[in-house]
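Data availability excerpt. The first of two example chains:
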Amino acid sequence: MVSFGLIDEWNPRPGRLTSWIASPSSITESASAAIHPVPPSHQQEAYLRAARRNESAGFRFSRLCLIAFDIQASLDTAALTTALTTFLRRHDTFRSWFSVETDGTVARHVTDAEAIELIRNDHGDFTTPAQIRTHVQQETPGPFDWDCFSFGAIEWEGGFTVYCAVDHLNTDGMSQAMTCVDLMTLYMNAAFGMDNALAPVGSYVDYCERERSISRELSWDSPQVQRWIDVVSAHGGRLPRFPLPLGKDADTHTRSAHLTTTVFDDDHAAQRFEDACRANGGNVTAGLMAIAALAYAEFTGKSDYLGMTPKSTRRPGNELNSVGWFTSLIPVPVTIGPGSTFTSAVAQAARSYEAGKDLTDVSFHRVLELVRPEDGIDVEPGWSVPMISYIDVRKLPGVEMFDAINGCLYGNRGSSEEVFMWINRFQDETSMTFLYPDTEIARASVRDYTDKFIGIMAAVSRQGDYDQVAPALAR
């Protein structure tokens, strides 16, 4: 099973560590790149602005994403250098860096692919996982540096561990899985003379231009903009919040905490849950949003739930093989009445989810640029919302090899303002992972929420439905 969590929980096997970072000549050349006409994606721009606002946090505020996997053979450093360089040149998201100009705009600069070179550094033996974790995080630059990535190999008897640390600016969950497949394929080709084909990739810069082109065509009265305004207005003009207290001070930074627990310990239970969702017109994501709505109602006594779930913005074709930040958030409103059950809620959630998919390419960041005061939308810059994500890991590219190579995906312990939730279905287990503010109150709230959520999922798996506990609800 693929391991997920915070980098603090990554326990690589100690050994001799060699790292690869951008060469000084690459950094110098990239710094001279002129402003490119395509700006960052809306999500990248918001992320960069948040990173700039929080430079005084005292820790790495931006997200660092790490993958690692094992190879049971002696390390060929020349082959790994070739593989890593080819990987960076192959995906054009790694050619960009961003500056904040005097007029406040965030501008893209693009360096030439052939200018990307790596240097290898031998760091000697590391005796503890903590030393390795510290090294990786300290060696990887932040999102305002072009080279916000680093790579490494940790040699131990009989093999070595490859790691890749990339700022979230240039990657997402699917990209991390693709990175593992790409690097394994490229290394095997270079080290053992193999000729395994790589899938053609699209351009992340072209994707950003498409997103911005769509945004330029939007106006306040565009149907998609009005849909967003209607959804948020129905929620009091505010974005959703976690239904239980988190105990964080809005004026301070709160580091992230992480919890992973098992939902189903066999695939039969997971399949029964999926069957119940599909029998009522939904998929698993719709089922999870229905459960979130029921849990929200039981915890708060309120009937109108506004859920947010990530949606891939990749289009069919080469973009499906590209590394980059190809996601947006879509709204899934669900109303829970006194007689609502899971089966009625999932049917409604399925309709909301389908309607929300029409907003995949319409960034809420752009909507906020278009809203009028009379719309009554009260959303602050740097907004954050609770998010629920479902991934059927069995369908990820290359997943069949992840167990064999001890594949893992981790993120750094940055700042958390809200609760993010991932449900991942593996071959023999379904897990639930939370990222949330590291406070005593939040820890208790997330435990209570976890118990409620899993309890509803288990009931649906056992009996195909769930009757809410709350006898009555008030708006």
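And the second chain:
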Amino acid sequence: MDEQPTGTPATGPRGPWHGGPWGRAAVRGVEARFGGGLGGGAEGTPGGLPWRSTLAVAVFVSVGTGFAGRGQLDRVALDGLGRVLLLLGAALLLLRHRHPVPVVFGVSAVTLAYLAAGYPYGPVFVTVALACFAAVVHGHRRAAWWALGLLWAGHVVAAHWLYGYLPPDGDGPAPWGQELPVAAFVVAILAASELARVRREQWARERAERAAAERRRADAERLRIARELHDVLAHSLSVINVQAGVGLALLDSDPGQARSALTTIKAASKEALGEVRQVLDTLRAPGDAPRAPAPGLDRLPELVEQAAAAGLAVRTQTEGRRRRLPPGTELAAFRIVQEALTNVVRHSGSRAALVVLAYRPGALDLRIDDEGPATGGDAGGSGNGLAGMRERAAALGGTIEAGTRPDGGFRVRAHLPVGPEESV
């Protein structure tokens, strides 16, 4: 390796940057050109071999080194052995995802053999960079550092002490100044690999967070649907149960009253089927608008009529000026009153209840009272009524209080925050 002047136009400076734009373009463009094969599976098929990116690397390295070697007159001309070494280093990249540690050491060893044989510098370092990328992003950082460190140390030994025993004939020691760009090249590969690893971990965390958010949304939607079905069915079935008992008791003695009970059962079951169908429609077509508006406090008279049919006299009072509320608040208020009246029908010995709607500035307060006492019998039901009311109130930032009154009755209080709306 006869030393050439650093400014000779025919050859340029010696070292791994020798070969002009090929080496620099390889370092700058390696991730952009072949980044698709750096991630965990291969192109197109999870767990397969990255054939396309490896073939592209092999062609790029072989052709680019041929061009780069034309300006390196102090190096051995690229022959069959040199091309075999280039292709061997690229071929090892096929296994960079399955066996990243052996691949990064194997590619470094093949590259060191190529350089020790005196062949031209150039895009041969692309294979080293890709192998290092694969090792780092798969969690084998130390293996990548050791492989690059050994490659650099081998290059130093060959260029400064073993040059007399290696091709080309009559070569001299390489200038120590060239080791600075070599070290910079090694640091650049490691830095780019670490950046790829960090970005890969960030993407994995973001995907996990998105998946967790999707699961939370799905759980919330399932809870909403279950709550709606519980409220609809619990109320309607309670009315049906009471009226069926009345009908059976009066079937022989008072057929007219029994007919009235059956009519109530038919109306309650029809309404329940309609509301269940509305809830289930949201499952069949999640993106479509509902076919019917969600129930609100404008349907409170219907609840009163249904309670009257079940033998419960309900009085309603309104405090403050009534105004339009957001649909979610209207639905929650309606369901809370509905569930509270259902509990009165099921569990209270009283046949009278009071519903108070208090429109406050920025809030709606509900109060449902019954005179009691509790019957103490098993009236059926899931036992989730109060929990469902609390969940509805909490979803709006409100609260629910329920408990026995000093006189033996039962009271439910709900506080639902709302924004200012138009009066009606």
